[in-house]
Amino acid sequence: MVTIKDVAKRANVAVSTASYALNGVKKVSEETRRKVLQAAEELNYRKNGFAADLKKSKTQTIALILSDLSGPFYSELIRGVQDIAVDHGYDLIACNSLGGQNSTAAKFLTERRVDGCIILAHNITNEMIEKSASPAFPIVLLDRQLERAHTVPIIVDNKNGGYKATTFLIQKGHNNIAFIGGPADSHDGQMRFEGYLEALQEHHIDFQSRWKVTGNFTREGGELAAKIIAAQDERPTAIFVANDEMALGAMEYFQKVGIRVPEDISIIGFDNILESKYTAPKLTTVQHPKYEMGALASHVIFQLLDGEETEKSFTLHTELIMRETVIDIMTKLRG
Amino acid sequence: MVTIKDVAKRANVAVSTASYALNGVKKVSEETRRKVLQAAEELNYRKNGFAADLKKSKTQTIALILSDLSGPFYSELIRGVQDIAVDHGYDLIACNSLGGQNSTAAKFLTERRVDGCIILAHNITNEMIEKSASPAFPIVLLDRQLERAHTVPIIVDNKNGGYKATTFLIQKGHNNIAFIGGPADSHDGQMRFEGYLEALQEHHIDFQSRWKVTGNFTREGGELAAKIIAAQDERPTAIFVANDEMALGAMEYFQKVGIRVPEDISIIGFDNILESKYTAPKLTTVQHPKYEMGALASHVIFQLLDGEETEKSFTLHTELIMRETVIDIMTKLRG
DNA sequence: TGTGCTATTTGAAACGTTTCGAATAAAAGC
DNA sequence: GCTTTTATTCGAAACGTTTCAAATAGCACA
């Protein structure tokens, strides 16, 4: 393997000079610069980034840790992070936390391979996060409520989102409203449920536990949940589904078995993933500020890295996206 | 910043001993091991991964370089790569090549920050790839035909895929078949087009250039292309669209303006993205072996890393997925 | 010719690990 | 009790850079 020493030797200069030349430091004469560059070229020299980072103790890179690199939800988030990172001249790498404590993610968290990181992954423990954070290694947490030194959470107001969605349904005259939730350990899902509950309560509608069914945030989960709901004798007139993917699955199922959306049953989702505006009918949902979340996260990281003060935590808000899967119950009765 | 030296000092051992203890090397006594571990714990010691990698000159990580970290197409590919990588005890990081020569990707390519990499990004130049590849740094290229030492391409037989799609259309009685292609610099798109051409030729159907329109592989591009096609006086009875995303966009457009799919116009896509089976009607398409591609790429990297011989290049095949957007023209005429 | 500059080049010391070979301590063999 | 073995521990040399402080060269000026 060819190192900077080889380059220096071939160019007949000291390695320090070679280093300066290679990095375009001004103090080296034009001529030696050329010599060094040429030598590097001839030897096909490639610098060892680690060695450099080690010496500089700065990586100019931040990591984005996701529990799953794939999935439609993340695209926009990643774009948000990325845009801001490049603005700051930083590199972004994404890695996943599949495998928990032994995952790639863990390695980045505990081995100082990046200058900071943004985490959206629930299989990384709080403990691990607390241990890793330090002034030189700020962590931004998405969708996780954990305020610590050098750790700032950004959450979206899921409860209010759930409240909005449910209230909307109620305003449209529905009072038999089912809820399809996420896995029990999902904080988001839980909050969305609470919003649902609150709206119900506010309008003096009793919560019926048989109408709360949980899925796993996937399309298939939504199908299954829909099936369970459809199987009951009394059917709700509307469903608030805790994420769009499940909502799409549910719609798919209803259509398959001849239950019309929204004529027979109204559906409102959550997240506003790209796909939801392309379905027929188009999904009514709650906007999750994904891009903004990513961008904000990035911003905060750089503020922390610069030693600036930031808010202790951030809350982003949601917005109702009215499309075609919720119908006014009056219209329905007349229809 | 606390280093292994601090740990060693606090535990009253030599740094070498501390290192052994921390890495679980057997030759250190149980007692000192405990002492060291405790000291590390107390100081909240976190090792510097770079320093370690530097010394070991091995990173145990491979990179996956994509031109865009987002996008539905990549999910499955990533899963494929990931699955195999973890099997080999390697870490995977994804980074993107947005920004070409100055991108994060470039840094990984030229600075030995990983042991090997898989590239699916057309804004990385061939030259750069050739320069970077070496026995110690194998590169697997997806959808790019570039055979060099330590560089193996994996391509899918796009031409044959295009041929199959088009032939299928012809067999269903269509002979006015339009083509919606990708951007000019897309090798895949070009190959798919050639397959289309070949099928046409084989059945003595003249190619009509006004029926070739190009999009940018996005949904919006598909919509636009569909619009252009619909605007012509004579309309084709079928379209072969070079990727599913555009096909969905096209369908969307046709449905919007009251052109029925498949009754008025048949559509066949390419890729078989997840979404395509959830549309109404379900999209007929050509299966692109995304997962397999990722998994194979991973496999090849590890073979190369082990110094084993591999094929010079790999070709993966496609498969027709018949669903609902192609109709037999006879049915149509009768209907 | 010597003095003082500036511009360039250099050697050596880091950066934080791992790992080799040697040193030491403890145990065992006789 | 002395030698041999084995189990631990240790010191020092890497790994490939960057960067500081010092050295040298080149030049102008007196």
Automatic annotation (TrEMBL), chains A, B:
Family matches, as SMART domains: HTH_LACI (SM00354)
InterPro entries, alphabetized: HTH_LacI (IPR000843), LacI/GalR-like_sensor (IPR046335), Lambda_DNA-bd_dom_sf (IPR010982), Peripla_BP_I (IPR028082)
Keywords: DNA-binding, Transcription, Transcription regulation
Xref: SUPFAM superfamilies: lambda repressor-like DNA-binding domains (SSF47413), Periplasmic binding protein-like I (SSF53822)
Record-linked Gene3D superfamilies: 3.40.50.2300, lambda repressor-like DNA-binding domains
A molecular function GO annotation: transcription cis-regulatory region binding
Positions of the HTH lacI-type domain: 2-56
PROSITE patterns linked to this entry: HTH_LACI_2
Matching PANTHER family: HTH-TYPE TRANSCRIPTIONAL REGULATOR GALS (PTHR30146:SF109), LACI-RELATED TRANSCRIPTIONAL REPRESSOR (PTHR30146)
Name of the protein described by the UniProt record: LacI family transcriptional regulator
